Target: Disease resistance protein RPP13
Amino acid sequence: MADDGKAGASSSSLSPAPWLWATSSSSEGGMYDVFLNFRGEDTRFLFTDYLYHGLADVKKLEVFRDDPGLELGDEIKPTLMEAIKRSRIHIVVMSENYVSSSWCLLELEQMLKYSNNGTKRPVFPVFYHVTPAEVRYQINTKSKEAMEKHEKREGKDKAEAWKLALSTVCGLSGQHIQEKHQEKYETEVIGKIAEQVSAKLLEIKQQLNRFDSQFEVVESLLNLESCDTVRVVGIYEDQGGKSYITTFAFELYYKIKDEFRAASFVVDVGKHLMRNTADDGLEYLKKELLSDMVVETKQELQHKRVLLVLEGVDSEEQLELLEGMRIVDWFGPGSRIIITTENKDLFQNYSPVMNGVELETHCIREGEMVGSNWIVKEKHVVGFVKDFIDVINQLREEDSKRRNVVSIVGMGGSGKTTLAQKIYDSKVVREVFPLRAWATVSKDYREKEVFSSLFRCLMPSKPIPENEQELKSKVRRCLNEKRRKYLVILDDVWDIQVWDKLKDYVLPNKNNGSRILVTTRNDQVANYARSKEPHHKLLLLNEEECWELIYNEVFGGEECPPDLEPIGKSIADGCKGLPLAIKTTAGIVAKRERSEDEWKKIKNLLPHWCVAEDKEGKKMMEILKLSYDDLSEKMKPCFLYLGVFPEDVEIRVRDLIEVWIAERLIEPIQSGRSKVAPEPDDIGEQYLKELVDRNLVQVASRRSDGKGVKTCKIHDLIRELCISESNSNNARRLSFPRDIGSYACSVTCHQSCTYSLFIYGDAKGWSHHIPQDCRVNVLYIMGWIVDLTSEKNVENLKELKSVKFLKIDRFYPNGLSKLESIQTLHIMGDVTPRDLSIIEGLKQLRHFRGVEVCLLVDKDGVKNKMHNLQTLLYVHVDSRLGFLLNNDYFPNLRTLGVSVTEEERHSAEKTFSSLHCLSNLQKLKLELPISESFPIPVDKIAFPSNLSKLTISYFDGLKSQDMNALAQIPGLKILKFNDVSCIEKILNCGTDRSFLQLQVFIMIRVRVKCLTLKDGAMPCLRRAVFHDCPGLELKDLPQQMRSLGCNLHFTPHDDVDELMMIEFSKAFRH
Model:
């Protein structure tokens, strides 16, 4: 960093971050990971401090930030310029006053010099409240005047050099921060920068790990122990692609530099030697070298042991110029000269002697580096950069709770073992954990094999004991030596019983930082092992990463033919991000002819792995099937039923569970105990959670509480497994008619003679697909039925006497109340109010979801209560609803949605006063009219005592008094407002000791200017969501909400036409 003012100067009103005066993490004489260049006056107390914290404290990088001892008028110290040379990555934070700082510009010039304008070392520009054009062209008056001052003080040549540097850095790809006073936004950008820097550093360090043995070879050629003569070594690379020769040279330079009395690393030697004349080039080189070694004449070096690295020598002509300088004669005995080049042929025909000294040469990619298999193998860790860093940090962090287990969780084939292996082999793990051991547990757990594997890692030179008890005791004794920290990796742990058998032998009972890393498909195993939270869950790879992995597997270091790249990317996309599928596919592609026709065949095969003849494809499906085999017998049919839904569709969890119940995959529990047995819906929730924990089902979206699953999905390969297993040995067979809708699936159970039909798209002719001799359990139609209200269609529906689950999109036929077996009835999309007779049937009904239904009831029929009904959405608030509530007609109702119209305003208040009769009601949705003519007095609503979630929509006139009334609901945990307007500019959301149980507060499209919250209100609040609220800014939220950090979700309002938004909400409120 450079700063032309006092180190602590700042115009910011914010308090400095607690880590403010930590200048740089130590590089211990080696390389820094990152050098931060910034204008302290603009960003020290704000952005740069948090960026430094994110890099140094969170990502554990070696970061050089600044020298707080610098004062105005000081020259930049040599140590700071040295830090620029010693840094692997440079970050430049451009800000409003950046150009006015000569120190910033001097540093920038040096950074671009040693990075060759960002081509040999990464340079990341960050534009903080400025645009690249403002910096590049000094558009604003302040920057223009500053550059004029620089020119007067430093001279025209220096000013032009700085302008060129600004132009160069502004042409590099970087991050832009334009929004002011948006802490969350800036934090997200800092996160992106940290990830980008970490990814780039990991790439660099992976390459350096490959160079480990090469450092030793070059050091042996240099023969550092000998001080008799001068030695010259030339190093080069033998392969194309990205060059790491400069990176290697810098790392080597700082590795051995301290063994010499003077040292210099001169970059771009070839470019400077070829200046206007050879003499000019040689003079420049001489000047640069002497300056670097802090001497005035070359005679001062003749008796010193010197290290000189000449980087970027590209031709024999340049070698001859260096030889003509007789540079070897400049230095004393024991000196070493290293010449680096990207020209692999440079030394082949050149004389092996330079100025009488033997010229040794070495290729840094010879030996163990040769061979595409090794390179490809290393590149298999595509996409795991963040995962690697996060798990490493969990392993390294101190934990006051002494939780010594870290877990990697993911579905089969997601790369858990690959990531664990990379961590196990990493240099940082070898440094932190002197003792390391690995055992693969697997589903077929064999105890002696596991302990034998651990023994081999811990005591490789000793024979494995034959006696199993002796074997286990020796492993335990070795691990519990107090002197050394250990890391044990238990790969592929399936169940908690196995963990119980292992933990007493491998769980550290010494508080010295030892760790166990567990990989598992089952989140419940990680929970049981008391793994550090959050468990590290592996996500699927994105499209770019999929293609990168296939590209590396298939082509190695070669180029992909341009005509194959589009179809290759299409094949990669078809793998849907699962590393196992990508690797398997790449193996098939690599063995086939490289032609469009052959690759198209592979692409067409991807959706049908279960019928593939290829061994790799079959093996992959067997690996995935292990997760299915491990399910309980009760859960297997529930899992297989997921195969009925189309590829890539988000499945509503409530639909899925209700279909399971309709198909009798979940039965009510008959306990015979006084304690109430759980409802089938609750059992279904537990089944789904288990499938999510086992990573067979993916969470697509969460409920408003941020915890429960709202929609889910499955990977295409998991879906194929469901279909394959259903049709091979399951009671229910799936088939896919092609002559109806855009997608259709039928489920036939021959044992019970039942049939179910799922249709997406035009459902014309749906009734023809139902066998005459089968009872229909489920009819699920997501789309249009041609001639919706035709008598034939209505009659066909009425004939489905046995149907238990009926979901129809877009219309509501009369007479469906005669479906005596119906348990779930969804009528979606029709905004015309309909009548629902509740006395003619529907006694089995559990869930009704429709649009503004009016309940028809005969007063003499109230004795037949609807004991099974749990969900009723949406019904009109009228006298008939009030009558039913007062007569306890819905004793077990858990979810109710009501809608009020102006015509019902006289009866609404009275009906609302009867809501307290619903003693089991947990969720209430109120749709109140958009009208100021008759406000519903919220304090007149008798909310049920067990209510835990309340949603209020389309209400004009919300005020603080209403919030006070809502605050009195004793067990309210979730409060949500949709399309609501406040009549007060400042809405007081709670007084002291109000909303005592509230955990989640949500406002979506609520028109409000400011919210307040008194101390002591909402003490349990853990999540707040504000989406598209006109007039509301982040700064206008109460401090209690702004302090929620990542649990506060704030999306600013889009400037759209307000009237259009209101009309849209009216039309599509359901």
